[in-house]
Amino acid sequence: MLKVHDIKKNYENQQVLKGVTFHLKKGESFGLLGPNGAGKSTLIGILTGLIRATSGSVTIEGLDLNKETNRAQQMIGIVPQEIALYLHLTAKENLIFWGRMYGLKGKELKSRVQETLQLIGLEDRANDKVKVFSGGMKRRVNIGCSILHQPKLLIMDEPTVGIDPQSRNHILETVKMLNNGGMTIIYTSHYMEEVEYLCERMAILDHGSIIAMGDQHELSELVGNQREIIFTIKREHGQSEIDRVCQYIHDEDPLKEIVIHGNQIKIFDQHPQQLLSRLIQGVTALNVQIISAEIVEPNLENVFLYLTSKKLRD
């Protein structure tokens, strides 16, 4: 369905993408992950034909995106991170407008608009202006506009940012249904549980390169015997307790990498039970109150953390 081969992108003296390669089968759901600045947005721009790569190629069902841009773009739907709607128009009017932009008209357009309103759960709000909608409802219309032309490849860039749990759940179920119906999905999100739920395979992009790719089990194996230890401590004097605990861990093992997130301290170790026991004794001796201490089995979020040493939501 999609072949991305050795994509490189340079801006002046900076190389943003450094030879990205991956292939997607028809009907596959693929998670594209990476910290801010990793090159995800640039890669999405290239995959949609909006940005020209410095070198490399993208083919969609055999069509070269650079040489047959218009035909290839007809197969793509894009759900941008920012809302791309006309707020003074109704939900139905927005769908009609974008449907016409895709070349739909007459009975086909009317039918697609009705089907889409039903799919996104807004039949009863079809004639309400988008400006009065909640964030979740706007997101649902945003998705509706991207699938009116029934694309073969749907690229979704953080489609659930800042919405209520009900709308988020509805969007996830909609994506799942579209994928089960044969639509190929590229999904990027800072919410690991969404990617775990939706995607068969994932790629982690960092500093312009894919540093890992596979299904969840394959990615988890990259951690090997390492397990994540999470300490949650009570902060009574600002950053003081965090600094003291980190200094203690550093004194115990100067090479141990520490990740701080709020009042949590995260580290990886091959013998977590032994280390956890020592740390509890040491931290207690510092008169720092431990709220919780746990060992986490590998999941997508701590695999990401292990590989990039960054918290994805940062």
Question: Briefly, what is this?
Answer:
The chain is an alpha/beta fold. It has two domains: 220 residues, 3-Layer(aba) Sandwich (Rossmann fold), CATH 3.40.50.300; 71 residues, Alpha-Beta Plaits (2-Layer Sandwich), CATH 3.30.70.100.
Question: Would you give an account of this structure?
Answer:
The protein is of the alpha/beta class. It folds into two domains: 220 residues, Rossmann fold, CATH 3.40.50; 71 residues, Alpha-Beta Plaits (2-Layer Sandwich). It is 37% helix and 26% strand. Strand 9 and strand 10 form a beta hairpin. Helix 3 packs parallel to helix 5 and helix 5 packs parallel to helix 6. Its EC number is 3.6.3.-.
Return the CATH architecture of the largest domain. 3-Layer(aba) Sandwich
What is the element string, with H for helices and E for strands?
EEEHEEHEHHHEHEHEEHEHEEHEH
Envelope shape: globular
- Placed side by side, the strands forming the largest sheet appear as 6-7-8-3-9-10
Q: What's the CATH H-level superfamily name of the largest domain?
A: P-loop containing nucleotide triphosphate hydrolases
Low-confidence stretches: none
Taking all Cα atoms into account, the compactness measure Rg is: 23 Å
Distance between the termini: 33 Å
CATH class of the largest domain: Alpha Beta
The count of domains is: 2
Number of strands: 14
**What is the overall pLDDT average?**
91
Structural class: alpha/beta
Please name the CATH topology of the largest domain: Rossmann fold
| Fraction of residues in helix | 25-40%
Please, how many helices?
11
Strand content: 25-35%
- Give the biggest sheet: 6 strands, mixed
Keywords: ATP-binding, Hydrolase, Nucleotide-binding
Enzyme class: hydrolase
Domain ABC transporter: 2-232
Pfam family, one: ABC_tran
